[in-house]
């Protein structure tokens, strides 16, 4: 007869630095899912894991248990290879919105479940909801049917998928255990692998505007994510990318959708497209849709030049209840009451565009949420933002601010002038794509 697994015994094992067994980890996840462990016991083990860490084998067991705490989408009836990407979050990162239709146009299905913005990072779901009527709350059968029909779907996490993660993340948020690599891995991968995908590409960001500020720490996370995902049988690669300055030239929900539409028309900013092509190329190669990165990139470029990716975007918007005409007429997106250029008070070169400070300025306009229950204003934000290394003349716009009131406009102006540094000497733009972790 097996000895019952009491929460206090499992907590004591990890407190003392021991590796937890699969059964002990399953007991913890079951306790989070079904309420058999008290919040105080769950929190105690989270802190013990934060302090003592986990082996790769433990992290695989935790991820698997969390993934199977709810429904795992069965997409086996869809014969196309199925790939997804996940970003650890940054400022101006709208890549999913245009990358998913590009990949689908290349014959690889994209079953993508995304999140909402919180704090200084924007959320894909909030951006998509800038499109009137766009429904991110599909059921799993609706999600599966749409993928079978058009090759992609961008939705939010349903109640059936990885319910243990919702409980544990809420506790991590209030117990100072968010920044724990094994817990981050289990949280990200339990959701991503429950989508029914075959392969995964990760965009792990570092820098001022990233979740991981330190490059070495971001690399540690990238290695842990790829190790755990492969331990669960999913071919995975991670791309380290810099987030010292915002990605692209737009920050704000509707403004970022507009930039993604420009990307699908071949008119996107160079840095946004570079990240898109690198992530997309690895997705196609891992999925077996291209033999090498060079041919994969050519296929992605062709998806844009042929109009196939834009057509897929329209198909997705229509399928999820939005108006596909937005792709041809972006004036249909929400517009702020006021807009005004932020002009440079000096001449020289852009030395820095602090991603975190820009994001906080957007947050104050209402483009994001400080608390999970906050509502976002889809119309506000910045576009036409300058990039590091660009020459600037006196009176030249550094960006355009979109706000709902004169007071908010003035506050954003002050914040952005502090965030953007102009110097007299030329500087080079920072490296964007740093390293591939495979």
Features:
438 residues; alpha/beta; four-stranded mixed sheet; three-stranded antiparallel sheet
Give structural notes.
This protein has 438 residues and is an alpha/beta fold. Helices cover 45% and strands 14% of the residues. It is built from 16 helices and twelve strands. A four-stranded mixed sheet has the order 1-4-5-12, sandwiched between helices. A three-stranded antiparallel sheet has the order 6-10-8. Strands 9-7-11 form a three-stranded antiparallel sheet. Strand 4, helix 10 and strand 5 form a beta-alpha-beta unit. Helix 2 packs parallel to helix 4, helix 4 packs parallel to helix 9 and helix 5 packs parallel to helix 11. The longest helix is centred in the middle third of the chain and has 17 residues. The chain is globular and about 70 Å long.
Question: Secondary-structure map with pairings?
Answer:
Layout: H1 7-15, H2 22-34, H3 39-52, H4 56-67, E1 83-87, H5 95-105, E2 110-114, H6 124-128, H7 140-150, E3 152-156, H8 163-174, H9 181-192, E4 199-206, H10 215-231, E5 236-242, H11 253-264, H12 270-286, H13 293-305, H14 308-319, E6 338-343, E7 348-353, H15 355-365, E8 381-383, E9 391-392, E10 397-403, H16 406-419, E11 420-423, E12 433-437
Parallel strand pairs: 1-4, 2-3, 4-5
Antiparallel strand pairs: 5-12, 6-10, 7-9, 7-11, 8-10
Helix pairs in contact: 1-3, 2-4, 2-8, 4-9, 4-10, 5-11, 5-12, 5-14, 9-10, 12-13, 15-16
Number of helices: 16
Helical content band: 40-55%
Distance between the termini: 43 Å
Calculate Rg over CA atoms: 22 Å
Strand content: 5-15%
- Sheet with most strands: strand arrangement: 1-4-5-12
Low-confidence stretches: none
Order of helices and strands: HHHHEHEHHEHHEHEHHHHEEHEEEHEE
Mean pLDDT: 94
| Helix vs. strand class | alpha/beta
């Amino acid at each position: 007869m097996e000895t019952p697994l009491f929460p206090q015994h499992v907590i004591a094992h990890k407190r003392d630095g021991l590796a937890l067994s699969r059964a002990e980890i399953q007991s913890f996840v079951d306790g989070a899912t079904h309420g058999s462990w008290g919040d105080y016991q769950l929190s105690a083990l989270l802190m013990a894991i934060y302090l003592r860490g986990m082996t790769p084998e433990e992290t695989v067991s935790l991820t698997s248990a969390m993934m199977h705490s709810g429904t795992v989408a069965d997409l086996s009836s869809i014969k196309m290879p199925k790939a997804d990407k996940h970003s650890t979050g940054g400022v101006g990162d709208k890549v999913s919105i245009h990358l998913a239709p590009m990949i689908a146009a290349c014959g690889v299905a994209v079953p993508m479940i995304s999140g909402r913005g919180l704090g200084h990072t924007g959320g894909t779901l909030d951006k998509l909801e800038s499109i009137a009527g766009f429904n991110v709350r599909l059921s799993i059968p609706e999600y599966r049917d749409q993928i079978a029909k058009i090759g992609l779907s961008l939705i939010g996490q349903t109640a059936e998928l990885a319910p243990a993660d919702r409980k544990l993340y809420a506790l991590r948020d209030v117990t100072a255990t968010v920044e724990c690599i094994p817990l981050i891995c289990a949280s990200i991968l339990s959701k991503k692998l429950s989508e029914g995908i075959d392969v995964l590409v990760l965009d792990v960001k570092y820098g001022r505007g990233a979740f991981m500020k330190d490059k070495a720490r971001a690399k540690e996370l990238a290695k842990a994510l790829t190790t755990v995902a492969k331990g669960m049988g999913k071919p995975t690669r991670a791309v380290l990318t810099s987030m010292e300055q915002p990605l692209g030239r737009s920050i704000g929900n509707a403004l970022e959708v507009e930039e993604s539409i420009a990307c699908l028309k071949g008119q996107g900013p160079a840095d946004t497209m570079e990240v898109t092509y690198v992530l997309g190329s690895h997705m196609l190669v891992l999925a077996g849709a291209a033999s090498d990165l060079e041919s994969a990139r050519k296929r992605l470029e062709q998806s844009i030049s042929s109009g196939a990716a834009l057509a897929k975007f329209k198909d997705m918007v229509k399928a999820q209840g939005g108006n596909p005409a937005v792709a041809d007429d972006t004036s249909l997106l929400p517009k702020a009451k006021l807009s005004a250029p932020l002009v440079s008070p000096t001449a020289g070169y852009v030395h820095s565009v602090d991603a975190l400070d820009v994001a906080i300025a957007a947050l104050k306009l209402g483009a994001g949420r400080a608390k999970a229950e906050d509502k976002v204003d889809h119309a506000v934000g910045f576009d036409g933002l300058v990039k590091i290394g660009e020459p600037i003349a006196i009176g030249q716009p550094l960006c355009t601010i979109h706000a709902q009131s004169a007071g908010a406009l003035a506050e954003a102006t002050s914040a952005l002038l502090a965030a953007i540094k102009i110097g007299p000497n030329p500087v080079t733009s920072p490296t964007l794509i740093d390293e591939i972790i495979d």
